[in-house]
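ok so for the tutorial part 2 we go from a plain amino acid sequence to predicted structure tokens. step 1 is just haveing the sequence, like this:
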Amino acid sequence: MDERAELAEQFDRARGHLRAVAFRMLGSADEADDALQEAWLRADRAGADGVANLTGWLTTIVGRVCLDVLRARKRRPEDPSDLAELVTVPDAADPEGEAVLADSVGLALLVVLDRLGPAERVAFVLHDLFAVPFAEIGEIVGRSPAAAKKLASRARARVQGAAAVPVDDLGRQREVVEAFLAASRAGDLDGLLAVLAPDVVRRDGATVMRGAGRVARETLTNGGLARVARPALVDGAVGLVVAPRGRLLLVLRVEVRDGRVAAFTAVKDPDALSRVDLAVLDA
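step 2 — the prediction. this is what the tokens look like for a chain of 283 residues:
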């Protein structure tokens, strides 16, 4: 077997690992596949002669490709209207299984990762999720190993966040928010009425709605949003991120009082969303 054929075979064996790395870095199955194609072209041009750890070398190449994609993405912000269209697309229509991939990683994690700078995201994903040494990460992002370690540390702090309430209170909040989400997804009016306070307040921009009955019926009209919503730490409390395929569309700030949802506010404006502090509940 010649060197190029052997490299192609090794690349194919490592494809699952490399695609997992690329997806966690980019949050898009299509972009991950494109990154793998570019990584193969770069690997093929460079050749693997003398490479002792081929999977590690290929991971480094994928990391560099993804860093380029993330930097380009920062220069081309996503249009929120494009994300809104994704809510109406059923998972079964997704031939790449992107929704399944996003769920396997965690939609809330993808949302938080999307808020990191490109170098921070690369450092966190490679080190914390795939145990790549900081010396190799430093080469990818053009920093020293110590600087790469700081990038990952800053990213980790943002992913983990800080709760504004004690752990026990956070757990009770989460139970209520998850019950609200489950009833919303199931179209369960009685379940919603059980979890909403009688005088619950729903705010959506300038629109304010009051009363469990009205709010519950309105909530049931948003089944598509509920399908792509996941619990997250929102400004230090349990709330919801609505993120089709891991891309943030809106946030629900939820106020829990006496074991029920007392109020919730939809945050949709891109500028307002950028000021919301988001973190992963299970980090």
